[in-house]
């Protein structure tokens, strides 16, 4: 081979090898920089534990088909998440020191959850618990016994009275709660009292349509909630904002395909059903706890809508404690109804 061709081949090989080495180095540098950025981000978000609720990461949505084997929420870092128009995000829990642990001894075990430092803001559930009484004790015990072999979807989880007891039964729970003060406490309870990996908290409202909603709470009654931006409803309560998702949304992340459902959303139960039409096709739900008292008399998505919706899916209403079939005028049914197939 002539000498100048040999030199040319040598030179070209040299250039190609140099470029490859450069590319490999560049890739490694980039990776390292990304890892460092990520680590710094994690550190920052760990330091920031205030109620500011820093968004730490976008969560990749899983195609429904693979959900069963790959739940997105399996580690302690993804206890609390929220969905908006852009996607799922992980949020940080509230700091323990803002709250105080309240313990109740129940049939299932030692139920411990966080109340505020002052019971003044915490009338319905925590204040009663401080006196050793459980809100809706008999109803909850009955529901937990009947549904004990099923994972639980808890819509309107509040501070986790039902969700945390289901976790004591070693059940997987998806707990949805729109009020930050409640969701952050529930998230903290999950981490501090040994339920990480079992209870996943979603900080969102649930409604017939998705979008930003205004919620009304009472300062002395964080468990009480009404949705304000519905025409014609007047309130004198404190206002807060939330992003409403349809219940169908959670099909994107559910780690199971069969579950008991609890819906306790202060008169909005019918709206939740309206936004759940796909859920019933995909998920096997044999048992539904539903607060009846506030929804039954509503004109839109009220008692009649709920009865028609549930009947069309072969459910019949039962008394949650006695188990008796409920008949007659639905306006006379009890505070809570248990729908069974
Ligand atoms: C219940 O659990 C809490 C938190 O783990 C603990 O502080 C408390 O002492 C327990 N109470 C009983 C009666 O075991
Ligand atoms: C999750 O947190 C609990 C309670 O703090 C702890 O016992 C458990 O080891 C943690 N699990 C993982 C996977 O980090
Ligand atoms: C809290 O809300 C519940 C449900 O609306 C109501 O029955 C109760 O009286 C309220 N308590 C206070 C202290 O406002």
TrEMBL record:
Entry keyword Transmembrane: yes
SUPFAM superfamilies registered for this protein in UniProt: S-adenosyl-L-methionine-dependent methyltransferases
Segments forming domain Methyltransferase FkbM: 154-316
Domain of life of the native organism: Eukaryota
InterPro entries reported in the protein's UniProt record: FkbM_mtfrase, SAM-dependent_MTase, SAM-dependent_MTases_sf
Gene3D superfamilies: Vaccinia Virus protein VP39 (3.40.50.150)
Stretches that traverse the bilayer: 7-26
Sorted UniProt keywords: Membrane, Transmembrane, Transmembrane helix
PANTHER family in the record: METHYLTRANSFERASE, FKBM FAMILY PROTEIN, SLL1173 PROTEIN
Protein name: Methyltransferase FkbM domain-containing protein
